[in-house]
Amino acid sequence: MSQKDTDELVADEPAEADVEKLNLSIKVDSPSACERHITVTIPREDIDRYFDNAFSELMDTATVPGFRAGRAPRQLIETRFRKDVADKVKGSLLMASMAKITEDEDFSAISEPDFDPMAVEIPTEGPMTFEFDIEVRPEFDLPQWKGLKIERPIKEFGKKDVDTRLERILAEHGRLIPLDGPAKSGDYITCNLKFMNGAVELSSGKEEVIRIRPVLSFRDGKITNFDKAMKGVKAGETRETPIKLSDDAPNESLRGQEITAVFDVLEVKQLELPKLTADLLSEMGDFEDEGQLRDAIQDDLKRQLEYYQQQQARRQITAALTAAADWQLPPELLRRQSRRELERSVLELRRAGFSDDEIRAYENDLRQNSAAATERSLKEHFILEKIAEEEGIDASPDDYESEIALIAAQSGESVRRVRARLDKGGMMDALRNQIVERKVIDQVQAHAKFKEVPYAPEGTDTEALDQAAGGQDNETDIPEAKQPGEAEPLPTPKEYD
Length: 497
Prior knowledge:
Elements: H1 3-9, E1 25-32, E2 35-42, H2 44-59, H3 74-80, H4 82-104, E3 128-135, E4 149-154, H5 159-171, E5 175-178, E6 188-197, E7 200-211, E8 215-218, E9 221-224, H6 226-229, E10 238-245, E11 258-272, H7 278-285, H8 290-321, H9 331-351, H10 356-368, H11 370-391, H12 397-411, H13 415-424, H14 428-446, E12 449-454, E13 462-464, E14 494-495
Parallel strand pairs: 4-12, 5-14, 8-13
Antiparallel strand pairs: 1-2, 2-3, 5-11, 6-7, 6-11, 8-9, 9-10, 10-11
């Protein structure tokens, strides 16, 4: 139990005699690998002993009308102060019971007990019994992790790769100009959109600016072939296209079903890239010339390749390690951990220098498959954490400083502001897990056998909107794809009439 729970459990510290060990009867049931239902029975002898100790302690200070302090008969004191002493005895018994359970039982708790001390009563006769549920780390035999065979993607980045990346960076500083004609892939539409289930409107958006790409992603589903659906569209036209909601959509009644997206196109625009002037170079990062910018892009591409190598290695490693991990994880644990998994993933992407749009698209994919993704990641975490314990791997203060400095460098924010944002957002635990798990992956790779394969990155063909098409999305605790320290997401290209 936490200190707060302990403080609330009993107002006074137990007397020295109270801490004598109890002769508990403890029954542990395992509904799943990560759940324990604990039934505790305290024998009458222990209850009476605690009452006797409490009344003996009270005898010297109790004040009863007609008697001097400490002079009242014990029977009168027991009658007069029974209720007050019972509350203290209950708290002492519960605290001592929890301490003994922690000491005697062979499991590692990962949550506070689901337990209400106020609901427990001491019976006038017979033993005292109480029950609670608690989530624990699963028990399993660590799989063989040395000598795994892993494919490692490799690539030498050339001028064409830098040109492509430079164009995407310039697009963030470009402007949208009206297009007098039909839209094509890569153009932008300004539209009012709504999502319909038959005649029922589920959600809507006003004057949304959307780039026409092959995939349009939402929190709870995606439209494939979006570029084909919008091909040739003009201002004033309306286009409809189906969208299938994910099995994890917030609107439970429509999970896995198909609804209709309606786009009322108000304007069609195209992106005009800016010229690479000295002012723009300075704005983008105090670059002295285009060559320095290109060198920085080359470094970013290499860093993203390293991230991709890490992710591919992690997928292969964890797939091998979790092959036999058939434990059932509690739905409440998965729901609670989905936020942590998203935080960890966003930190990894931010560290690797991915753009805000790329991260938002990833967030939507993760939300659309949150249950399966969280279950897989949680199993990975338990296994990697166990390897970390056996190998003595942990995060050091220098590790935290390095991670925060790298995130700050990628985001353009100060180290101080990034650290403050992580602290305020409660994300230091996610950062710690990220550091430890990466170290474990490095350790596994140090004992692995590698086969080099060509680098084939996942396509950046997705436009993402931070909206639930099916409605009923009240989620506010999952972080948006923002730079640490930023109040708002990066802006879309400026619009000009």
